[in-house]
Each structure stands twice: as structure tokens, then as C-alpha cells.
Amino acid sequence: MSNWIEVGAVDDIPVLGARVVRNGDVDIAIFRNNNDEVFAVTDACPHKQGKLSQGIVHGQSVTCPLHNWKIDLTNGEALGPDEGCTGHYMTKIESGKIFVEIN
Amino acid sequence: MKEKLVVIGNGMAGMRTVEELLEIAPDKYDITVFGAEPYGNYNRILLSPVLCGEKAIDEIMLNDLQWYEDNNITLHKGVKVTNVDRKACTVTADDGTTVEYDRLLIATGSDPFIIPVPGHDLPGVIGFRDIKDVDTMLEVSKSKKRAVVIGGGLLGLEAANGLMKQGMDVTVIHLMDWLMERQMDDISGDMLKNSLEEQGMTFRMKTSTSEIQGDGKVEKIIFADGSEIETDLIVMAVGIRPNIELAKQIGLHCERGIVVNDTLQTYDPKIYAIGECIEHRGMVYGLVAPLFEMAKVCANHLAAYGIGIYTGTITSTKLKVTGIDLFSAGDFIGDDTTEDIVVRDASRGVYKKIVIKDDKILGAVLYGDTIDGSWYFQLMREGTNISDIRDALMFGQGHLGDSGHGGNVVANMSDDAEICGCNGVTKGDVVKAITVKGLFTLEEVRAHTKASSSCGSCTGLVEQLLETTLGGDYTAPEAKPVCACTEHTHDYVREQIRTQKLTSIKDVYTKLNWKTKDGCAACRMSVNYYVISSWPEESKDDYQSRFINERAHANIQKDGTYSVIPRMWGGMTTPKELRAIANVAEKFDLNTVHVTGGQRIGLYGVKKEELPLIWKDLNDEGLVSGHAYGKALRTVKTCVGKDWCRFGTQDSTGIGIKLEQLSWGSWMPHKFKMAASGCPRNCAEATIKDFGVVCVDSGYELHIGGNGGIHVRVTDLLTKVDTEEEVLEYAAAFCQIYREEARYLERTAPWIERVGFTYVKESIVDDAAKRKELAERFKFSQDITRSQEDPWTERSTKGVDAHEFTPLKVIG
Ligand code: SRM
Ligand SMILES: Cc1cc2nc3c(=O)[nH]c(=O)nc-3n(C[C@H](O)[C@H](O)[C@H](O)COP(=O)(O)OP(=O)(O)OC[C@H]3O[C@@H](n4cnc5c(N)ncnc54)[C@H](O)[C@@H]3O)c2cc1C
Ligand code: SF4
Ligand code: FES
Q1: Is A13's Cβ below 8 Å from some Cβ in B?
Q2: What interface predicted TM-score (ipTM) does this complex get?
Q3: Residue to probe by mutation, ligand 2, list B47, B98, B287, B313, most atoms within 8 Å of CB
Q4: Is residue A29 part of a domain?
Q5: Using one digit for the tens of pLDDT, what is the confidence trace for B403-417?
Q6: Rounded Cα distance, B186 and B311, in Å
Q7: Which atom of ligand 1 is closest in space to residue B637's alpha carbon?
Q8: In this structure, what CATH number is given to the domain that contains residue B440?
């Protein structure tokens, strides 16, 4: 059963930045890009679990702070020659509030 | 409606321009290409290895027919353009095709010059230019034995070598006293001739041809002195002529080539021209390096971005004959105003000559040992002052100490030798990626193997591997762009930031036509640094363009926790500070307390949310951020100095503390470390720091440009001063010149090696006015950016960046 949960306002996240939603043991990283699109992926890089929320955001991707892998925020997949995928969540924005679909 | 671009000439320059254009403006044009040769686009350079049998034709294709289809390019191959109607803007070809254009690009290359002696049009007399010529040579060599090559230049020797490899007896006819006179001096030219003779080639020097005879095909060649030899094939390689027939016919202004301006535009503004067929600022080129540069500029203007100009290229040459190492670049002959350094070792077969003027390299010719060719070429292009390395210059980069890239050591390494220690990549991994995945550039190797993508200290090794693995296919980039988001170099970007007064990253990206909207992790951090260091007053630091450590003011660890390292001024501390650190460690359950290599204490395993709480407790006892996480002043190490030490000459701890107070909080291109020792025993290791002070009886020795790390570099002695005030002024000036001139992520050691120690010394020691101005600018920047307000206090009690340290929400 899917479940849309409000996690906060778009403006709570800096442009080209990220915040973390703590869901039990799992951290979900919520990103906001330059077009005010919002993305959610598990806050653990497929390489060595680097915290993606601490990376640098550009376009629709984030560069991991530990060893510079680039992760596609639309699906959690590593980009370019690297291979791997981290969990990905659906998001929507309604009247400035962010909702994340948590199963 | 898309505009129409027509390209005449399907060679290296034309297609390179199209590739560049597709990259930056893929949807601007409908593209039509005419090519007289019946193929896709191939790498002409590699015809020599094909002739030698080292490569097959399909290995030298750059873009096959599928590529044209995939990119919606209409290719008319095997079709020659015969006319252009510049009024109607149409192009007509010999098969009757007529197409319209909005923009026309002429890239017709050049033709081999055929000496018009009687008999030059007999079958069996050819040039060496295209696949057809190579096919002819290979065909003749199957059944015939004798060949003559006219012209002992680069191309002629490669042809002669290939024919010899195909089993023919080859005689090279050369007009001049020595071979390759445009790339070599007499001595190296003779050495080359000797080695080729040993391999079986025959030469006739100072000889000119008067006639070719034969009945329906070539049979013999007759020389001006009346002598003659019999032959089955004659290859003329006496030079090339820009192919400007069509351009002249349609009334474009031509001299030796089609005359173009700095944007590669001809006298007809709708028509661009590029490659070997052009003449630019009086120069005509016959190598690929210039045309790659031209293609970038030309594509940019075709895309209507209108930036970038072509200012000409300094070229270098290598001969692609296996077993012969030869390199030459620039002015290697010299004149009355130049000096030479020459090494000649006949029994090793080595000859090196470097021509120097005003302490800069003007040109070089190397024979037998060319390992340092690319290094000399780099010093020459960058105009580096070589007076400091003059004694070592001839021995090569490998003898400069291990601070640079080291010489070409890779060739001797085994496959399992580690190239990149950061990412555990071996030589075998890199070579395999280059060959299997078809990689050509450093960037590609970084992306595919991770080698050289972390600390960068193995970049030189990776470049050498590219060079040894790809051979002639690898052209070292002229100057490296910041990253894939732009074609501009660090230096160009910074210069534009200054001259156009660009005060934000956004301005830079728009004005300099960045290819990506937000840049990437690499360029955003660099550009942010250039903007804030150039315009400390007018610009604002961009928080999201900082690496996480500099956003969180703590160093991220492998498990996602952070470290906290408070400042201990000049390595001094007090019981009160130690107690504060002990209390924090207990209160927050931090089990790892480490005495760092920088004379202070680090606490590890801190949860991000707790950072502000810990900082608050430390602040309350007077401790502030140590910037152990920043591209900034890190530590100032000191020894106890004359207060206690029986050898101490000055107050080394005192001067250390003052240096730290002067410079802490200032952002730098890379981390910056200082030290002060009380006597030449140098217990504080001041001679491997970015700025080091060694106290002596009569004052203070100032040292610059050292570091530990992978390539240890010992400092250069900058000067000796008498007072503490002077120490501080020199330190401020040195910090500032480094802040203003080094590239982002370039530490003082590699920066000084790049610009030359003499340059730095002239700026800071010899020019007192400049030193004072630099020191003033340093202090101004420190004040205006309020860099000495503790970032920890701002975050623990003033609410700055609170979002950084709290989760957005906790659920479940
Ligand atoms: C903490 C410390 C080790 C320790 O516990 O003793 C340390 C830790 C790191 N060093 Fe270091 N270095 C530490 C002293 C040194 C020293 C010794 C010194 O400063 O006298 C050196 C050699 C001297 C030098 O820099 O010239 C040193 C040479 C390096 C280098 C190589 C620098 C180079 O230019 O080649 C790197 C890599 C880099 O910066 O790219 C590095 C990088 C790092 C990084 C930042 C790696 C990273 O990006 O995560 C480590 C951060 C760990 C952390 O969370 O704090 N560390 N590092 C030391 C901090 C000193 C301090 O109080 O601030
Ligand atoms: C054997 C050999 C070895 C070389 N080795 C090196 C080397 O080691 N290093 C180096 O830097 N350079 C080397 N070069 C030089 C390098 O190949 C040239 O500088 C480069 O190919 C020039 O590119 P271009 O596009 O100007 O001309 P080209 O590559 O010659 O392309 C021009 C094309 O235009 C076509 N064309 C001409 N007129 C018309 C027309 N009217 N209609 C339609 N098509 C037309 C031609 O058929 C040709 O295909 C070598 C060249 C040769 C021949
Ligand atoms: S450098 Fe030598 S003299 Fe100076 S304090 Fe250290 S040990 Fe003493
Ligand atoms: S953990 Fe993300 S790149 Fe290594």
C-alpha cells in the first residue's frame, strides 16, 4: 500500500541543496534543484554508502561527497561509467509542500 | 526552421568542426557534407601505420557512415564540389547535386605538390595523401621491388619506411644537405640519416630530379647531374599546397591559403574556412593540433555564440617511424640573440638541443631520447622562466626531484604496478581501458577507471600511459579546460572574471557560455573561488558551491560522521582548553581523540546534528574552528623556540601565533600550511610547508613552496629578513599572490614549479611596492569578508545555516 507523506515545504530546502528525512533506520535525502524540482533517494551512495545529501547538486544529479560518483536523482542510478543504484522515491509538490511516497 | 550548413571537404578539420558543433548546438543546423573521397571520415595521420601494416583501414575510421545517419547529416561521398554561387547561396557538385546554404564551411585540405618535371603524369607517380595513394603503394609492393621517394621530410620518410616494411628497396632523394631540415638541425638530421641507413634505406642528398621516363608507366628517374636509377614507383613528398582552387574560382580572397580572420571567417561573412586550406595571420598549417583548436572556435561562431578567437598555434613534431625517437618544436636553430644548451652522446645515439632566450625556451630538438619532449613543449608554451631549473633541464623532468610528475617511468612498470594509489588502479587496468573501451583523453580515463580522479598526483603517469598506448593517436591537449562543462581554461575564466567584472557564478556561466546550467561539482567550486577571491567586496560566497566539509565546517568521514579540530594557535594550548576538549569528548561520547599531524587535537565520529552543540561548548572556553576541513590556512606548526630550547635563537612560537592570527580564516586555492622553527635544526619542519620561517641569530629565513604529501617538495629560500614585522608582511604578500594567481586546487608547490620560483621572488622580494600592495590586498580581503569571525560561533549561536544540521523531518 502506498502512502504519501508530507515532509516539509519546498522552501525548507536550499536551491541546489538537500535535507534528510529520517524514516526509522533509513535516511531519505530530499533534493531541490535549480528548477525547483524535488527528488528523493536513499541517502546512501551505491559505491560505499556515502551520504548523497552532502553532495553537490547539478541538473538532475548529485555528485557524491566521498569519491565523486554521479547519481541520477530521477531514478537513483549511478551515471556514466559507474554502475549501481540506490533506492528511489516518488515525490510531488502541492501548494509548496513536498510529499514523498513511502511504501 | 533550421538553418542550413553545408560543408565542403570530409576530412579531419571539417568533421571535427561538425562534431564540436553537434556538441554545443545540436539542433541549429541541417547539415550537408560533400567529400571527394568515397569514405566516411578517417584519421589521415594513421595512413603511415596502415602503410607499414601496423593498422587496418577500418581501425583508422573516425566516423563511419552510421555516424552521419545517426546525426541526420546528409553525406555526399565520392562527390566533388565544382561551384558555389555566392549570390544565390548554393553549392553545386560534379554529380549535379545543388544545395542551398545559410552558412558554408570550406575544409578542402591540401594537395601534395607534384614537381612538374617531364613524365610526372606517368602511372606510378603518386603523392602520399589519402587511402587511394596507400592502396596504390600496397598494390605495387606486392609484385615490384624498387621504389623512389622524392623528399626527405616527415611525410617522405614515413612513406619510405612503410614501403621498406612492405619489402621494397627504397631510395630517398633529398634536395637539401640534411633530412627534415624544417624540423631538425644538421646534427640531428645526420643522426637520423645514419639510423635509417642502418635499417636499409638508401639516400641521395643534394640531388634534384630532372625527368621521369617510362613506357606507359614509370621505369626510371633521371637527376640533374645526369645520373639515373630504375624504379617501379615514385612517391613525391616534397610539400603540400593548400587546396584553394575552388575558393579562388568563386572569388574568395586567397593568398597562400584562403584568408580567414580570428573567427575563421573568410571575406564572405557567410563562408567559413578551416584546416590546411586556410591562411591565418600569415600562417599556413600542416598538422592536426592547430585544426583541433580552429574547430572549437569555428563551431562556436557557427553556433552563433560568438566567443573565443583563434590566435594561432605553436606546433611540435614527432616522426612516426618505429624505432626512431625524434621530437622538435619551435625555433630550434636560434640566432645571435639566443643561447643553446646541447647534449650529444654519439654512442647512445642521443642528441638534445634546447634554444633559450631571456630565460625562456624558444624551441627544442631531441633525437634518440624524447621522453622530455612534452615537458619542454609545455615549458615553452607556458613561457615558464627556466632559470631555476637550468642545471637540471637537460637531464629531464625525472631529475627535478620527485615534486613534479616524474619522467617517463611508466614504460618500465609492470602491469600490476599501481598507478593511482587513491583508487587502487594498476597500469594494466588503465592500458586495458584505453584499448578495450577506446579511450583517448585523460578525462575519459578518469571517468572509466577513476585513475587520477582523486588527488591528481598520478595525472602525469596516466598521460604517459595514454601516450605510450596510443602512440600517434594521442595529442596532449594544449591547455586543459576546467571540466567538461566548458572549453575554457582556469586561467581564461579567471581573467574574464577580472576584466568583465563578473561577480557571481551565474554571471560567469552566462557570459562564458557554460554548456550546463548549474555546472558540476568540479567547476562550481573553482568558479566560486575565483569570483570571491577576485571580488571580495562585490561578490557573495555561494554556499551550495562549496564542498560539504566547507559547508558543514567539519570534515566528513567515511561513515558519514564528522571530525572536529579546534585551533591551537601556533601549536600552543592551555589546561583550560584541554579540559574543554576532554569534557566535550566525554559528554558526546567521542572515543577517538587524536593528536593530529598539525599539532592539535582532533575529535572523530561526531554526528552532524551534534556539531553545533559541541562547537558551543568549545566556543565557551575560547576555542574556535581550526579549518582542518578547508581550502584555507590550516595550521602553523612551531617549536618551543628560545624560551626553552638551548639552541633557540628567536621566539618561534610567538611568530607562529602571529602568523596564524594574521591569516586564519582566509580562503585559498588549496590548503595552506605554515611553520616556524627556532633554529636551523628545524624541528617544526618549516622547509616542507607552504610558508616556513627558520629563525637564525641575525633574523628570519623565509621559505616558500614546500609540502609533504605524495610528492614531497622542499621549500625554496625566498629571502632573509630582520624583523617580525617583515615576516608578517612577506607572509601576507605571499598568501595573496598565491590566492590571486594559482589555479583552484593547485598547492603552492606545483604552482611555483609552473610559474617559476624566480617569478615569485621578483614579485615579492625585488619589487617592494608590489609586495606592499599584495599584503594590503590580503588584509583588505580578510577584513571585508569578515573571515575571522568564527564560523563555528555563527552556526552554534547565531543560527547561520541551521538547515544544515537538522533533519527535515523524522518519521516512522
Ligand atoms: C587530521 C589529519 C590526520 C591526523 O589525524 O593527524 C589529516 C587528515 C586528512 N588529511 Fe592530511 N591530515 C593531517 C595532517 C597532514 C600533514 C601534516 C602536517 O600538516 O604537517 C600532511 C603533510 C604535510 C602537507 O600537507 O604538506 C598532510 C597531507 C595531506 C595530503 C597531501 C597534500 C599534498 O599537497 O600532497 C592530503 C590530500 C589532499 O589534500 O588532497 C591530505 C588530506 C587529508 C584529509 C583532509 C583527507 C580528506 O579529504 O578527508 C584528511 C581529513 C581527515 C579528517 O577528517 O580530519 N592530507 N596531512 C591531520 C590534520 C592536521 C590538522 O591539525 O589540521
Ligand atoms: C600520411 C600522412 C601522415 C600525417 N601525419 C601527421 C602527424 O603525425 N601529425 C599531424 O599533426 N599531422 C599529420 N598529417 C597531416 C594531417 O593529416 C592534416 O593536417 C589533416 O588531415 C588536415 O585536415 P584537413 O581537414 O584540413 O584536410 P584533409 O584531412 O585532407 O581533408 C580535406 C578533404 O576535403 C576533400 N575535398 C577537397 N576538395 C573538395 C571538393 N571540392 N569537394 C569535396 N571534397 C573536397 C578532400 O578529398 C579531403 O578528403 C599527416 C598527413 C598525411 C597525409
Ligand atoms: S628548532 Fe632546535 S633549537 Fe629551535 S627550538 Fe627546536 S630544538 Fe630548539
Ligand atoms: S561512496 Fe559515493 S562515490 Fe564512493
Answers
A1: yes
A2: 0.69
A3: B287
A4: yes
A5: 343 445 676 666 777
A6: 31
A7: 20
A8: 1.10.10.1100
